[in-house]
Structure of Receptor ligand binding region domain-containing protein:
Amino acid sequence: MRFPYFFRTVPNELSQYEGVAQLLHSFGWSWVGILATDDDSGERAVRELKAAISRYGGCVEFSFMLPSEVTEDRYTYYSVIDAEVVSVINAVSNSTSQVIILYGTGTAMTQYLAFEEWLTLPNKIWIASVSFSFLTDAGYGKYLQVLNGTLAFAIRKNNILGFKDVLNSYSPSQFPESEEMLDLWEERFDCRLKGRDHRRYRFSYYMLTRPLCSGNETMKSLDSSIYDVSNFRFTYSMYTAVYALAHALHDMLSSDSRPETVITNGGLDLEIRHWKVILVVR
């Protein structure tokens, strides 16, 4: 095996498929639909969900795949996507299943859920995968009106001491080349940064009506419902993984069976056997 010792920082996706199937079974929902992003993860999810649902006696009426990435030609992309998403919305609206399972990358789904046509759907019960917890935690609420009342799977979240102060200190001037940071800033403060080309956005007309950012905005001033820096999910999982390894190394160095000491280039290096670290981590 290339990686004989492998630890996850998030639960195995297989457990999520089983969890969705058990949830459907417990409520007696045996006729459902699936919306997923068109990538390896989405294709695997559709395949595994169908199998899990079938094991519990349920059936899948439809499964639609939506593109997960934006192509280089954004203008052509959006004209194609607009028609495709509206077609999917119409198909979902005309379906007889009352339960829809959403599976895909949260950031990709936001552009699809922004369509007002979703709000015209008859009442549906939505079940969202773990990735959607990112959307609710990150304050994308206005894109998710259609998902109000959704049953969503989520991993544990918790506070990370000191991390709040670091995040609150961020500003666009620190990361002028980061499109993600600039997008986040404009989204959170409902303004536009001077010098950016906003024509690349599908809703460019809306972006251009926003006032220019004043430069006095601070992350600390944002409401916690929009920018929660006190609770983290995926970040907390990575945080605990790093600390688990750090504690394991500390325990090894503090124990009687210390790692072997090797002299290299006139200095002392500790030769730590990975299998010994794994035993301590476990």
Observations:
- The first strand starts at residue 31 and ends at 38.
